[in-house]
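Training component of the fellowship. As part of building independent skills, the fellow (R.M.) carried out the full modelling exercise for a liganded target. The chosen ligand was manganese (II) ion. The inputs are recorded below so that the supervisory panel can assess the work.
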Amino acid sequence: YVTHVIAAAEITAEMGLDEVSIVSALLHDCIEDTGISYEDIKKQFGQTVADIVEGVTKLTRVQYTSKEDEQMENMRKMLMAMAKDIRVILIKIADRLHNMRTMAYLSEEKQRTKSLETMEIYAPIAHRLGMQKIKWELEDLSLLYLDPIGYREITNKLNERMDILKEFMTSVEKKIKTRLDDWGINATVYGRIKHIYSIYRKMYSQKKGLEEIFDLCAFRVIVDNITECYNVLGHIHEMFKLVPGRFKDYISTPKPNMYQSIHTTVIGSEGIPFEVQIRTWEMHHTAEYGVAAHWKYKT
Ligand code: MN
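Fellow's submitted model of the complex:
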């Protein structure tokens, strides 16, 4: 019990939330699992913490008749709670993330129900709140339980190719870094393998095997300011051949969830296409933690 609430509080802290949120995360299962009441919490930790804990409890406690009703009701409760205090949702997401990370010993049926709910409710909400990092982890963990065979097929094949992929990523990283250094642009450059669920979706929507999916890697260039983002873009397009129709400028036109970056897909000398995302550190923080990052600045 205590391990779970401490982990949920840790995730809340990683999101960059405030003290009230972390305290509430530590207490989030109190009303549900112990004899402690709303009034007790209010007396010891104040009204705000008590309200948040009660909010999280209400999200947990919904009773349903059918599967669809359940999901509709869940979504409705989420949105209602969101309007009152966004921290309720953020703690609920932290709670769910830790549940998903520790589901290995639950029954198969429980694993599937939780994963389906995560895929249909929690991951989309994390997405809408701009919390990319958590959304990806929720999706990958859900996929692991919803289609374990498909999941392992992808991870096995990625592992077989890991040496080649790593070599490719290092060579592209080096090329970009050297060029930017030469031009006096201070940048952090790194490659990463795309997350499992995005590869999975691509394989199924395009009916392709993993060997036919070329852009398994994506690169990030993080710089200090917006002018440098556009400078970097110029360098990337001069160094590599542009793949038409893939360029997106979410800096001048941010996504509704506040996401900002420039995306472009190019082809290297190896003939392999890859995506490059260019952003500032501030944009990077917003992309990873979304509304949580933003919320913190506002208070
Ligand atoms: Mn919990």
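The panel noted the following from the submitted structure. The CA atoms of residues 130 and 255 lie 9 Å apart. The beta strands are 188-193, 217-223, 241-242, 248-249, 262-267, 273-280.
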